[in-house]
Write a structure and sequence with these properties.
alpha/beta, 10 strands, 3-stranded parallel beta sheet, single chain, 31% helix
Length: 243
């Protein structure tokens, strides 16, 4: 379905409120050189519309800095888009010459120091926005899909919120979790790249967590809630042993 038809379902909680829009660049001239369509105004209008329908939507993007011929004015256009769109996060990378590609033969290659300086400005801006967007979520409740076991240093396990944000949750020894399970908790602290939840949580087990248990079994698919090293995946089939 068209993304405009999907957004209302996100607003109703029927779909994950997360989109990835690969903007790449905001300058029409740079996009033309990349052989990509220039649609900055259209996409920004869409983002405003989507947020009107689903205020909680998290939108991620990606950008390249220093493509041949990029001027300071071109780069400023990208900064303007990032300021207005307020992406939850963005994958930003520096253009580098790849032998054999059309871009490698283009004139007006940007000096490495200029590319680096622009890259640092863009990442600093996006990091600030990401932190502000995450800080706005502190104190709110979130459902987290568990993706990892507690680490020894911090005693937290990792997971993803419904909007795909990374969250580190304080583990409760009395309520152990498994990758694939869900916990509902309160977000307590924000960083640019993740959130922390050092609050009590409620656990909702899932078939995915059961499958993780089976993957830890030594034989015959017998599950275990232990957090020990992963064993072989046996798929419910008996293990043949030699005496």
């Amino acid at each position: 379905p068209h993304v405009d038809h999907v957004i209302p379902l996100m607003a109703e909680g029927l779909l994950t409120p997360y989109l990835d829009i690969p903007f790449q660049h905001a300058s029409p001239s740079v996009l033309k050189a990349m052989k990509r369509p220039a649609n900055e105004a259209k996409v920004l209008d869409r983002i405003r519309k989507w947020r009107d329908i689903c205020p909680d939507i998290a939108i991620r993007s990606s950008f390249v800095v220093g493509f041949p011929g990029e001027t300071e004015e071109d780069f400023q256009a990208t900064l303007d888009v990032v300021r207005e769109a307020r992406f939850s996060s963005a994958f930003t990378f520096q253009y580098s010459i790849r032998p054999g590609t059309p871009a490698a033969e283009m004139d007006n290659q940007i000096p490495k120091d200029v590319v680096q300086e622009r890259f640092e400005r863009l990442t600093a801006l996006q990091d600030r926005i990401s932190l502000e967007e995450n800080q706005a979520l502190v104190g709110t409740e979130a459902e987290i899909l568990v993706t990892g076991l507690p680490d020894e240093e911090h005693g937290r396990f990792s997971g993803r919120a419904r909007d795909n944000r990374l969250v580190h949750v304080k583990a409760d020894p009395d309520t152990p979790v498994r990758p694939g399970d869900f916990v509902t908790t309160t977000l307590t602290e924000a960083k640019p790249y993740f959130l922390i939840a050092d609050a009590p949580y409620t656990l909702r087990t899932s078939p995915a967590g059961d499958a993780w248990d089976l993957a830890q079994a030594d034989s015959c698919g017998a599950g275990s809630n232990s957090a020990g090293p992963a064993g072989p995946t046996v798929l419910g089939m008996p293990t043949i042993r030699t005496r």
